[in-house]
C-alpha cells in the first residue's frame, strides 16, 4: 500500500496531459494503446510449428545385367603332322592355332608356315598340317556321291578343278577349303567375273599365301 501514493501523482499527470491534448491527442493515445494491446495479444498466442518439407526420394538406378549366350560348339577334323590327328571339339571363334593345340600340337616335322594359323575355323571344317617337303595331300572322299564325289575323283586322278565352273560342293572337298571358303570363292567369281589366273584366289577372303600354294596344283582356270 505504500506504492499507491507514489503512483497517484503520475496518474494525475497523465490525465492532465490527456486533457491538455484535446480530442486529437486522445485519438492518438488511443491508437498507440490499441497497437500495444494487439502486439501483446499476438505475442501471447502459441506458435504453430510447421513440419519440415518431406525429403524428395530419388529412385536408384537399376542395373540390368544381360548374359551372353554360350558359344556354339564346333567339331573340326585335324589331320597331318599333329600329335593326335582326328576330330577335335572347340568353340565358336576358335582359330587354326587353337584346334592344332587341342590336337596335341605340331609334330617335329610339321611345316606350320604353309598354314594361316590365325584363320577362324568352322564346324565341319578340316585342317591338314603338312610335313616339311610334303606335297599337297589328296582331298578326302565326300560322304555322299554327286558333284562333291566327282570333284574328289578328279583331284585323286590328278585333274585340276576348274575355278570358273566348280560348284561350292566341289570346292568344299579341296584340302583346307571348308564351306565358308568355298562359298567365298563362288561369291567372288559371281561379283568379279571369271578368275583370270589361279593367283587371283589371293583376293578371296580366307585364302592366304600358304593356302594358295597348297591349292595351286589342284585347281586351274
Explain this structure.
This protein is of the alpha/beta class and 221 residues long. Among the domains are: 63 residues; 83 residues, DNA polymerase, domain 1. It is 38% helix and 10% strand. The strands form two sheets. A three-stranded mixed beta sheet has the order 2-1-3, with helices on one face. A two-stranded parallel ribbon has the order 4-5. The protein is rod-shaped.
Largest sheet, in brief, is: 3 strands, mixed
Unreliable stretches, pLDDT < 50, 5 or more residues? 1-5, 141-158
Going by CATH, the homologous superfamily of the domain at 139-221 would be Photosystem II 12 kDa extrinsic protein
Q: Could you estimate the helical fraction of the residues in percent?
A: 25-40%
The CATH topology annotation of the domain at 139-221 reads as DNA polymerase, domain 1
Q: Which labels suit this protein?
A:
221 residues; alpha/beta; DNA polymerase, domain 1; 3-stranded mixed sheet; two-stranded parallel sheet; 6 helices; rod-shaped; disordered N terminus
Describe the protein's topology.
Elements: H1 4-44, E1 73-80, E2 86-91, H2 96-102, E3 126-129, H3 147-156, E4 161-162, H4 168-172, H5 179-192, H6 209-215, E5 219-220
Parallel strand pairs: 1-3, 4-5
Antiparallel strand pairs: 1-2
Summarize the structure.
This protein has helices at residues 4-44, 96-102, 147-156, 168-172, 179-192, 209-215, and strands at 73-80, 86-91, 126-129, 161-162, 219-220. It is α/β, with parallel strands linked by helices.
Amino acid at each position: 500500500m505504500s506504492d499507491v501514493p507514489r503512483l497517484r501523482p503520475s496518474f494525475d499527470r497523465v490525465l492532465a496531459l490527456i486533457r491538455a491534448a484535446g480530442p486529437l491527442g486522445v485519438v492518438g493515445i488511443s491508437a498507440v494503446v490499441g497497437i500495444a494491446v494487439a502486439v501483446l495479444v499476438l505475442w501471447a498466442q502459441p506458435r504453430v510449428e510447421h513440419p519440415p518439407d518431406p525429403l524428395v526420394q530419388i529412385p536408384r538406378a537399376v542395373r540390368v545385367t544381360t548374359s551372353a549366350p554360350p558359344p556354339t560348339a564346333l567339331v573340326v577334323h585335324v589331320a597331318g603332322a599333329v600329335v593326335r590327328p582326328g576330330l577335335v571339339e572347340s568353340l565358336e571363334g576358335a582359330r587354326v592355332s587353337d584346334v592344332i593345340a587341342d590336337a596335341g600340337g605340331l609334330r617335329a616335322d610339321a611345316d606350320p608356315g604353309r598354314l594361316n594359323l590365325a584363320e577362324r575355323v568352322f564346324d565341319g571344317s578340316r585342317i591338314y598340317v603338312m610335313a616339311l617337303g610334303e606335297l599337297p595331300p589328296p582331298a578326302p572322299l565326300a560322304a555322299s556321291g554327286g558333284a562333291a564325289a566327282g570333284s574328289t575323283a578328279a583331284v585323286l586322278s590328278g585333274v585340276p578343278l576348274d575355278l570358273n565352273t566348280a560348284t561350292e560342293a566341289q570346292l568344299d572337298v579341296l584340302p583346307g577349303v571348308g564351306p565358308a571358303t568355298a562359298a567365298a570363292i563362288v561369291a567372288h567369281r559371281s561379283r568379279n567375273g571369271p578368275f583370270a589366273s589361279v593367283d587371283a584366289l589371293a583376293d578371296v577372303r580366307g585364302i592366304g599365301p600358304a593356302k594358295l600354294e597348297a591349292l595351286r596344283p589342284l585347281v586351274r582356270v
